[in-house]
Amino acid sequence: AKRDGRNAYRFFTSEMQAQSARALLLENALRRALERGQLSLHYQPQFSLDADGESRVVGAEALLRWHHPELGWVSPAEFIPIAESSGLILPIGEWVLVEALSQLRRWDDAGLPELSMAVNLSAVQFRHDDLPQLVERVLGELGMPAERLELELTEGAAMDNPAVAITVMNELHARGVRLSIDDFGTGYSSLSYLKKFRVSKLKIDQSFVRDLTDDAEDRAIVDAVIRMAGALGLQTLAEGVETEGQLAFLRRQGCLAVQGYLFSRPLPAEAFVEFVRAGALA
Ligand code: C2E
Ligand code: CA
Ligand code: CA
Ligand code: CA
Questions:
Q1: How many whole angstroms from 202 Cα to the centroid of ligand 4?
Q2: S-S: 171 plus which of 11, 44, 125, 132, CB 3.0-4.6 Å?
Q3: Which of 43, 46, 63 to mutate to test ligand 1, by most ligand atoms within 8 A of the CB atom?
Q4: CA of 151 to the centre of ligand 2 (A)
């Protein structure tokens, strides 16, 4: 038993070493990723659901992509936490904001309908003193109305420090920027905070959408979130919609917007334009 224990311990440490070696490697590579032009954004269309059964593209969510010459594509699920713990998320997050809003300006110039741009924020950026000023400056430099921007903050990040969250939300709200709570339902937020948080939208997490057609409990949760949001004057967007069955349920319950592979995967900017133009003709 003693020997097994020691082997198990050794195995555990070597696995941990391999993991932290990879994390270190990624952190060093990420440090240079921006200047070397390895980061890009993909855009996933967001659709409004109208009462008459129509759906149309009303916005895009910007999603960060990293392609490294040797490591290949690295998933945001792997590199975002590293960017956060190293502080690199601050320059990277600023780049995302500038790039996403510059893209929105180019789409306007190319004659696309007026879309909104949703940008993900890390808790680290949200806690950083300068965020409201940064957002105001970038919008000003690009001549983009604040109403076109939507910042997504996860429930966990908002609940990390609710007092700070409320202050920052108020400052962003005062500048006309809208906020969404991302991954809603996965955190531990007390519902009473929803009254105090200056948000305009709840994004229903894809974990509740996945089994919607088979799981009565998920249906009950999604239904409750949609009704509560309606009563509080908040919009709802369901994420990760992959099937017609899920869409039909969400429509029936009065969900206002959706996003997911059923409509489109996240796309490079040029493919996004083609997607929107093709939809407008259909
Ligand atoms: P998220 O903000 O919840 O983004 C939704 C994720 O679900 C994206 O993964 C998207 O590609 C994926 N997705 C969209 N539709 C479907 C679907 O129908 N089915 C399934 N299974 N998945 C779908 P992605 O792009 O890998 O991003 C993962 C996470 O990384 C994001 O989750 C977000 O938390 C973070 N992230 C991505 N870009 C940024 C960024 O610019 N800044 C920050 N702070 N975080 C980011
Ligand atoms: Ca998001
Ligand atoms: Ca989400
Ligand atoms: Ca997520």
A1: 13
A2: 132
A3: 63
A4: 9
Tell me the pLDDT tens digit for each residue of 2-59.
455 555 556 667 777 878 899 999 999 999 999 999 999 999 999 999 878 889 999 9
Alpha carbon of residue 235 to chain centroid: 16
Measuring CA to CA, how many Å separate 246 from each of 95, 213, 237, 253? 35, 6, 13, 11
Beta partners for 62?
A: 43, 119
Q: What is the pTM of this model?
A: 0.94
Three-class SS of residue 51?
A: coil
* Interface predicted TM-score (ipTM) of this complex, two decimals: 0.97
Q: Is 212 exposed, middle or buried (0-12, 13-18, 19+ CB in 10 A)?
A: buried
Amino acid sitting at position 241: V
Q: How far is the CA of 90 from the centre of ligand 1 (A)?
A: 18
